[in-house]
Amino acid sequence: MQSDHSLPDELISEILTRALKVSEETFCNTDPVSPFANFSESTSAYLLVCKSWLHVATPLLYNVVVVRSKAQAKALSIALSGNKQLGLFIRKLRVEGGFGSPMHVVLKCSPNISDLFLSFDIFSSDNTSGLCKGLPLINPTRLILWASSRKSLENKMLLQLLQSLSDAIAKWDNLRIFDCPFEFASHWRLAHKLVPPIVKAKRLDTLAIQSAHNIAWTYSQFKDCPLKAIHIKRPVSMAERNSLSEDPDLIVFSDFPTMGLLKFSDRPRGVWDVPAGRPELLLITPSLDSSFVPLKMAPSAVKDHIWTRVMHFAMLLAANHSSTPSSGEVATRLGLLLVSKLFYRLGRPLFHKHITFRRPAQINKFAHILAQSPVIGQYVRSININFGNTINFEFYDSDVVRNGSSSLTSILSQASALVRFGGHLATSNTPTIYWDAFAAMAKCSGRTLRECSLNVWPEEGVHSATIFDNLTALRILNWDSDNIYTDIESADVKGLSSLEELRSTTSSASFLDLLCHLQLKCIRRVEFSDADSSIKEFLVTHGSKLTELELAFPHLGRLKSTKIFDLCSNLYSITFFEYDDEDEDEDESKFLNPPSVQHLYSSQVVHPLTKITFKMYWYKEKKQVIAAWDPFFSQFKPECFPNLHDLEVTCCSWPTSEREIAKSCWVRWSEFLRPRGIALTDKMGMKWRPRLKVK
After folding, report:
1. In CA terms, which of 177, 440, 542, 557 is 20 to 30 Å from 123?
2. Of 3.80.10, 1.20.58, 3.30.1330, 3.30.70, which CATH number belongs to 352-514?
3. What is the pTM of this model?
């Protein structure tokens, strides 16, 4: 006899409840964008796992029903008509539109609805006839209404819904809770229709309003109801709460009850919270033995090792983590060094491990410290220069500039174990330094420097390219400089032998010549932000080594007959971005035109490319812009890229309502590419999930 390994229904229900449950906060949400406007798999997929899950999950799924399109309304009406038992499960119904006659069937088959959510964002093309016929057939306990903050819509369908809802409210003897949307002047017409029948019934005991600023108006409308609580949904600071008791608009109501009637959010604004990522300090009970010394009997080596680890965490400098502490954190860390001689000896290397200069004077001060104690230079692992919005030396007085440059050169000539200077390849903070400082850093710490992000200030004359021979450990380089170089042929071809990632914002022709001269055997990722120079020779020399490439649209045109995917035969990701020339007249269409589709083909039978990204920034979906890109998506034929799965567009914005879906160019392009096995995604990697459609 075969044993039954299935779980009991009660246990399956406990498991599936967590997956299928719609929280109270989500169901009542009245934000401009619906919380149900997501693009993940539908929760109904749980019902398809097996018969046991279908049996248990069906009541859970139908407990809260959300209708957001005509197709969903029609499908739901068919399901409820075919199985009368399903409608009995529905307790909460959220309807975000009109959706026609199917809504009459839905309401007719759902007699147990206790919570009803309706949207007044009704357009003239919507059909509210089904809702109007079905509202008298239910008797909810709670009514939640949503109205957009923009000018109230005026059309036949909306007025029809208002009248039907007003008539139904008069008959709903269970209605006790009302979530009031009336917050702006544009809502007064709605209030004029709906408030009187609610007040006349004298059953309402709980009222929910959006914010505290309209309490007086709200109370004036509903004061004849037996109210027990007024919930304010948006957070209210403690100061605002205290001022409500003195509100002159409320004082005029002599019968206004105590402030106990008002119910505020659990977390009002203005409450001091513990900053994210920084837990509260634990209160440690002092030892009863005042003479106790931790690790007193431990060997010196063990004691030093343990206390060093403690100091790491105490100074917020965990292993392999480079921080940029604020002035307050620096003061806190400095205080730790003053605890004892042991803490000073062990904490000093940690204190100077990561250096951040926020003002030019700090550079001079640290150079003076190094002059007095050169051993500190061995402790420095990272240096970051961040002067806020004015990070370049040229913004300061000439004397400060020269002194700062000289001091920085002195520091970099003594930081012999430097690992990182500036930011990571993807950072936008690129400090500006002079050539002397860069040369000093290359000579002193070239064997340890792994990440470097900087802008080398252009100076008259030429510089020797052999300086790059010293950077043997450099893996990541963010380079912004148009200096001219000589002795390129004399440079060691093995220079920058460890370089894996290169980002060049501005570069001279001689720098590109130098890169072509070097072997760069480890290079894998390259980004060229400068669209004024030609990178063809670089791609001819090193293109086959690259796996990731990012470049501006104009570079494709300069390759002419040479196809970029023939030069870069091992790419699995490529990114194109629009290039804005500040010297030209601002012509939006000039920078938003797509590249030629012919440039995106390869003669390879099978190319490893898996992802194409377009970094573009459309503030609005203008018709001329869409018209320019329509042929690109319709003509794109990825036969040469059988591995291509994602086409990411950073300015892609997926629609969140049925009306927006019908007009969205992104949906149209996505549905064109999907049969070809390519997913169009936004900057978060979110792809469009096809919606149910009315046949």
Report:
1. 177
2. 3.80.10
3. 0.78
